[in-house]
Each structure stands twice: as structure tokens, then as C-alpha cells.
Amino acid sequence: xxxxxxxxxxxxxxxxxxxxxxxxxxxxxxxxxxxxxxxxxxxxxxxxxxxxxxxxxxxxxxxxxxxxxxxxxxxxxxxxxxxxxxxxxxxxxxxxxxxxxxxxxxxxxxxxxxxxxxxxxxxxxxxxxxxxxxxxxxxxxxxxxxxxxxxxxxxxxxxxxxxxxxxxxxxxxxxxxxxxxxxxxxxxxxxxxxxxxxxxxxxxxxxxxxxxxxxxxxxxxxxxxxxxxxxxxxxxxxxxxxxxxxxxxxxxxxxxxxxxxxxxxxxxxxxxxxxxxxxxxxxxxxxxxxxxxxxxxxxxxxxxxxxxxxxxxxxxxxxxxxxxxxxxxxxxxxxxxxx
Length: 339
What we know:
single chain; disordered N terminus; six-stranded mixed sheet; five-stranded parallel sheet; alpha/beta; elongated; 3 domains
């Protein structure tokens, strides 16, 4: 009779018998609660593969008081940026044998608070919170019960680990690149006025202008919402204002895509007539026409670091959050200003 059984009938005891170890050794290996020798680990893994064994998660939860799930509160799962970051979170959790539970807040503080309460009610073991506008007072009660890692924002009243990038420096680098190409009239497609990243990128744009002795002009700043459609509208607004500009820095790549399309429809060439820079370095940015010069923020690595950090918090292990660098990636959407 074969020892290979469907995954819903194989038992921990059968894994132990085939591996030649005790059931407690198998349990320790599965829970990661104690070190198992390499020889025993290999034997257990071989037995698990032979039996196609899947642990009973309900039983494990009852025994350990954990659900092996982590809540991930994001804003827009459809966003290319969040998609990359969430892939990093998922990979980190999968590696540690945790399952993610994704919910969206849609940039609405009350909705974010409801989603966070939902995750707490679902008895997740920890939470990764990505960006958003949720108030500290709505986070505090949950933070008393659950490990929480913040991404893209810091709290002013709570001592929670936070993963951020230097948005201001990235925007400075983007604007400085255009200035070094001889551009003086540089338009800026800003993000939402109440968004921390957008505000920091506006400050970086202003920093570079100030350093170069270029006057900051509010008329060259058009508001958008980090989306392609509003990037198109921003360009239309800038053109209709009749303010001269030879370059555009968009606060994210999606806005830059919209700006590129709006310029194309007006018969304005990129980069021959207008240089264009984005921010994020989304996967599509190296394949659009022309390939987009942009600031790379490591979205996948941000998510990966957040997932690893929340697992360490859950399991009571020490961890560090090394700073993640931003980098200017020069492609073919920028040229020196024509004299």
C-alpha cells in the first residue's frame, strides 16, 4: 500500500513516521518554533513532498493562538505602483509561511479605519499599512493588540516601525537633471495636495529651482491625482495658461504617461520639443515611447522589507529597516534645451 495520500487525508504522524522523526519534531519544523537539524529538516521536507501533506491551519491556529495570516491595508490594488509593492509583501509572507489578506482603503480615512478594524476582527497576526490618510487615533487601539508596520508614512503619536523613501531627494534629482540640460522653464505636474509623497516631491522640485537661482512660479504647477487622465488634464491646463515651458516633471509615472499622450495629441514631440521626467520607474516606463526618464523608487523592495519586518515583529525577533535609495534613471524622454 502506497504512503502517498491526498493532502486532506495525510497526517502529521504519517509525515513523522516516513521521516523517521517524532511528531513533535515535525511540528517544530512547521511552526518554526525551534531549530531543527539539517538532516531532520531534509527528511521532513521529503516526507511532506511524498505525502503532499498540507497542515491543518485551523488546528494550528487553535494550538498556537495564531492564524498565520497578515492583513495588508493598501489604497488601490489596480495601481501599478501598489501592485509591485504588494508583490513584494506577498513574497516575503509566503517565504515565512504567512498568508496575506488584502483590503483597500481608497485614500479615504474612514474607509481605512473600517478596513483596519475588519482585519483586527479577522484575527490576523499583524498588519502592513501602505500609505493612506488614516488618523493615528484610529490606528492606536489596533496597535495595542497587533504588530503594525507602516509604509509610506510615519505617525506623529505612535511608535511604529515605518518604511519610507526620500521623496524630496528624488524630486530634487529629477528637477536637477532638467536644469543641467539647460531647462529653466520647468513645469511640474503635482500630486494630490493632501498626499505626503506629493508634498515632498513638490518641495524637492522647489529645492532644485532655488539652488539654481530659478524663480519658482506657481503658474507652472498643475495639480493631478497620480493618474493618467489627470496627467493629461494637467498638460492641457499648462498649455492653455500660455506659460512657456520646455520641460515637465511629473510627480509619478502614471501622470507622465498621461502628459505624454496629451503632448502627442497636440503635435508636441517628446523630447525634441518638451523633455519629460516621471517618478516611480514602473515596469512600463522602460517600454513606452520614448522610454521614460524617471526616478526609481524600489516599490518591490519596499513591500518585501515591510513583509519581512511584520513577520519579525510577530515572532518577536529583532530587525532593522535600512534606508532604501532613490535613483535617477536617464532614458530617452529628455534632451538639452534647444537654444
